[in-house]
Amino acid sequence: MSVLSLGNLLTVRRLQGRALPVCPDAGLLPQRPPLWNALAAPLAGEAAAVVTCVAAHPSGDDGGRGFVQWRPLPQRQSAEMLFIAPAPGEDAVPTVWDLLLTRVANWAVSQAVVRVLAAVPADGRAEAAFRRNGYLRYASDAVYERPFPENAGDPVMNLRPRRPVDRWGVQQLHAAATPLRVQQAEGLLSAGQDRGDETGSSWTEDLVLEDAAGIAAALQLRKGASAHWLRLEIRPDAGSLAAPLVQEALARVARWPDRPLRCTVRQYQDMVPAALIDQGFSARADRALLVRHSVLPVRPALEEAVQRLSGALSGSRNPTLPEPSNSMDGRRLAASGARSLPE
After folding, report:
1. Pairing of strands 115-121, 78-85
2. Nearest alpha carbon to residue 27 among 269, 258, 262
3. Strand runs (DSSP E) across the chain, as ranges?
4. Which residues on neighbouring strands pair with residue 210, listed in sequence order?
């Protein structure tokens, strides 16, 4: 459904400045504008391509046109939305939103995608519109920001780069730090993944801190065009690490270009907000994390499985033995698990 006609590309170009970012992991929102995402999609691998859909509602303002972008997360049978445009006005959301969100839902069903994830400003018109289209809130977060950290000192903590061998330890960290309902909503529980599995390479620095019990914390930093991003995950019994980890992040970012530093904190990360505020961060926005579950056709898949099993069983019969007869003796033998042998 990636739309590349000239008219649709012009719509994306005209509206991209009014697009609302709706990526659940704000730090991993593509740094290129939506038009770039649409143009680059054919060059990306099928699993990584951003999907763009343009639609028009005849009764809407500005020609009723809008677009939505999302990217698949194949390992989780999920997708996450990136942008929807135009953004809500002062009075209401654009009428084309219902059509755009319906297109996303239809695509999810056609691709056997189990869930679609998004994040919108909490308790506002945008969340109401998404809820009207089948989305449910499974968590919330807050975006914190502080100015560029000049003279932040030098890194001092014994952090090291994350390695492939750390996957199990990071999964254990995520399982300990994340409520079960959130893992289920994001498709991480069944896939046995952490949130960085599919997008870890997007972080400029992806670091872990170990103690005697395993990986105690993960710190991820990303250089951005307009702001740098920080993500922290800390084992619940290691909450005292929050303050030194924030200081460590500031020291590392101080070597980068002059940009604000932002951090998203979920409502269950109790130890992080105080550490951020102590280092000059302030809350900028509250977001609702939303999920829409797809209703996928199950019966055809079951019928196909039964047909394959029947074919396998019929192919494994011993051709030297005849089928059970229709006689009473034959039916008795078949019911008892024996075969009707020739006289």
Report:
1. parallel
2. 262
3. 20-21, 51-56, 65-73, 78-85, 115-121, 136-146, 160-161, 205-211, 214-222, 228-234, 261-266, 282-293
4. 215
| Separation CA 43–CA 240 (nearest Å) | 45
* DSSP label at residue 327: S
193: its two tokens: 């993944």
- Pair 72, 47: CB distance under 8 Å: yes
The tokens describing 87, both together, are 């953004």
Percent of residues in the chain assigned helix, strand, coil, to nearest 5? 40, 25, 35
Residue among 238, 224, 227 nearest 172 (CA): 238
| Contacting residues for 279 by C-beta, under 8 A, at least 6 apart | 146, 243, 246, 247, 250
For 293, the token pair is 């579950």
Which amino acid is it at 160?
A: R
How many other CB atoms are there within 10 angstroms of residue 249's CB atom? 28
Tens-level pLDDT at each residue, the chain (343 residues) = 444 688 889 999 999 999 999 999 998 888 889 999 888 877 766 555 899 999 988 765 556 899 999 999 988 889 999 999 999 988 889 999 999 999 999 999 999 999 999 999 999 999 999 999 999 999 999 999 999 998 888 888 999 999 999 999 999 999 999 999 999 999 887 655 666 655 556 899 999 999 999 999 999 999 998 999 999 999 999 999 999 999 999 999 999 999 999 999 999 999 999 999 999 999 999 999 999 999 765 555 555 556 666 665 655 444 444 444 444 444 333 333 433 333 3
Phi, psi (degrees; rounded to nearest 5) at 69: -130, 145
Contact present, 78 and 292 (Cβ < 8 Å): no
